[in-house]
């Protein structure tokens, strides 16, 4: 996708037209994963992409059978 899109471009109103955004949702208990993913993305694509880290994981009633996911992401994570 990065090769297809190329570098980001902006119009005269400073609105971005072309870019690649990678979104990563952090899960509770997996605090090392985002670090590894960001390192991989930076090593692979440098500063040609945008990375969005999200920590809005919300436990659902279905997740009760998975206790490791039955909580919110803590501030430390």
Explain what you see.
By secondary structure, the protein is α+β, with helices and mostly antiparallel strands. It has one domain. It is 23% helix and 19% strand. It has two helices and four strands, in the order H-E-E-E-H-E. It has helices at residues 2-5, 32-45, and strands at 9-10, 16-18, 21-25, 50-54. It has a two-stranded antiparallel sheet. The protein has a two-stranded parallel ribbon with strand order 3-4. The longest helix has 14 residues, at 32-45. It starts with a helix and ends in a 23-residue tail after the last strand. The mean pLDDT is 79.
Quick gist of this model?
This protein has 77 residues and is α+β, with helices and mostly antiparallel strands. It has one domain. 23% of the residues lie in helices and 19% in strands.
Please give the alpha-carbon distance between the first and last residues: 30 Å
User: What overall form do the CA principal axes indicate?
Assistant: elongated
Q: Give unreliable regions as ranges.
A: none
Beta-strand share of residues: 15-25%
């Amino acid at each position: 996708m990065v090769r297809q899109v190329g570098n980001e471009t902006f119009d005269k109103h400073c609105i971005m037209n072309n870019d690649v955004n990678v979104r990563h949702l952090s899960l509770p208990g997996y605090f090392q994963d985002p670090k590894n993913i960001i390192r991989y993305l930076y090593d692979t694509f440098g500063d040609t992409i945008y990375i969005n880290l999200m920590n809005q994981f919300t436990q659902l009633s279905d997740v009760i059978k998975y206790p490791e996911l039955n909580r919110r992401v803590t501030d430390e994570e």
